Hints:
single chain; DUF3080 domain-containing protein; DUF3080
Amino acid sequence: MKKLLLLAIIGLFSVIGCKKNTTDTLLNTYQQRLTNILDVEADTIPPLDIPSYPRTHVLKQPIADITIGLLNAYELRQCGLFQLIAERNSILGKVQDKTRRLHYELLLLKQIEHCLNILNSADPLQLQLKNIYHQKQQQLPQAIWNMIFTGQEWRQQFTLGHQLLSSQQFGGYIENLAAFEYVDTLTTTMLSSQTTKHSLTTNNIDQLLHHQQQIHNTQYIGQLFYSIARITTIMNTITTQLITHDQTVMCGKNINQQQAQYLRNVFYKYYINDIQPYISKLHSQYQQLRPHLNNIYAMLVQQQITPPTAMAVYARYYFQGELLYQFQQATHDHVRYWQRLFKRCQFKVGHQ
């Protein structure tokens, strides 16, 4: 009985382990059908050589600890600071994750503003709170940076995947778009000299924890980056092989164009019906996310944060357009090849 159970478990894991990625299968079939018609071996898809996400210790920005004592407890209670500071100084408060730490910093700044507005101007606590407020504001870019690029739920989004996103499943896109759109707005509000911090309500600040929870179980962005880079390499490989053997594809009057017709059929069946919609979906989602990622990164760098070299390379490739350019060029070159073949063979555009 135990042996049967063991065999069943092994069989289950074998099935799971052997389950193929549907997008990989589609692209492999497309390449194989084309090369079969050309009567050549399919070129090997080269391994990816793309920037990986830097380690946490490289990315972390130092932040000096500014302690706020609970002296003047009466005044602090009057303006709502006492409980907030007490929670931060508690055992749990001292082990907050990066998101909860930023959440605290934002609430603290908002509450200090409130205290400064209601405390007597002659109160010695006024000067102390003004100094703390100024210091905390100065540290805000580092706090946002550390959350986005080193906080567990956020950094796991940037860690590259190892397989193509399934054409049927893009899990995590909606949650990530909402989360980074929120952080983009939050960063702009808190760091721009042209906006007022008073517009940031407690409910706005609490949304930070909501978005942390929403992306907790996803690793979407890194999978998207990997998929786009991999598709780029695959399309370039297929296009290069098509161009290399193009002279063997005969077209013209009184010439048997059966080989060219077979190629056209494969193009429509696989590329037009399935691959192009997949590529369009990748492109659309990337174009929705990239401006927010680039805005957040650029605004933080403008705040005197010097990113490590590895992060600058990563941002330039994924946030600032290098990957997008290569991706668009690869798809453009592939379609251009088919346009030239259709023109040479006088094929009408559309299914035959």
